[in-house]
């Protein structure tokens, strides 16, 4: 006769072991401990085997050894230790194994991993944020007044929520999905942020995080970018170009300089825009790695100055990409989607793009290629106003690429430019000034005249920038002029960019006549834009001179 029926066996909640339920009584009888023997095999569950029928029938139900099991821990005991477990698991963010060890050592409380998991589930204790929790926090952030947005006390699962975790993608069907675009650092209301005056734009009344078409456009844009860069890193159809090429500099530095000319209503800006746009076709053919980030950061810069002109330039680029590469190419889709991203979300788009690229560098084995891509990311962080991320990445790169190397490579020049920019941002001028003067010590003779070698031209340019921010117009103009003289001798620099920088310095210090005279002195350099000006029949470069006199 059967002593134990299948229906009499059930699982105990906390132990995970079997217990026996009598036919005459509905109470659970806890099994007594049983010594291990050859008649029992213990492996997660205890299996009864090889019982002789006569021996089984001779035993009564009360004397039958049932099985080996852990004692059940009553709920009252769990509740007594609940505050300690909560502090270790949630407050101190320890792993479950560490929590078990601490509880055993400090409180002589021993329970299995399965017991802990069930209790944590019953108590609702978890470390990860769910999608509904993130969306709820984003909703609170959207609805908060702009003046209190940076101080909202978000708490999820009993711990303060770090705002940056809101913008991390969540996984849907094994693919990362962005719940909402990251807001611009300018709009976060952080009182400790020290942004330059040019980045201090008025905050909107409300931060509009659109969870609809805007998010979908950014998500699709980043998806095309990721697929293109992954393909680029592994392809052999075109010659890979990872650094800042001369073509890229001429086109996109020219567009950014045109933006500065637009700020002061200088009609030469349109000639410079036309000349720069003429280089799009060659760039689309060669497809340098930095093409997409340059398009994104330059478009943001120009659109901040003139939305109409910025959109016109991007529309031309997208149309040219369509005819050159085809409608299905990632660059074409990238440019087309970028047209649908409004101004207030461009910063968040840039930040997400930088993080995406930074993640992709983990799979790059070539140190030189990795350095060039990270320099591109530094420029993206700069354009999006993420100076903290820019500074951290710069320190990592400068440690591996010392700045005192006498050879001026493109990578070294970009690192030095970043060092100057971060020093200006922090207001720490003396160290970088000393470094730049040491660069000049072997290049410029004591008379102060320029020798024309690339190192001295570059150092003079950076000193001109530095002294401008140090409010020293005389020194700034002096070093900018030295850079121009050297560039004219060497021939490897964009002199127009230097001239525009000097004019901007002079105009900012109300030295209008000096700026007009500079335009006259170098009119042969500016004349190269005449063929690109559609208005040259009615206006000339003397318009700027006349407006300043």
TrEMBL record:
Composition bias type Low complexity, residue spans: 192-202
Highest taxon above the source species: Eukaryota
Coiled-coil parts of chain: none
A Pfam family annotated for this UniProt entry: Clr5
Domain Clr5: 76-127
Region annotation (Disordered) ranges: 181-202
Record-given protein name: Clr5 domain-containing protein
Organism: Fonsecaea monophora
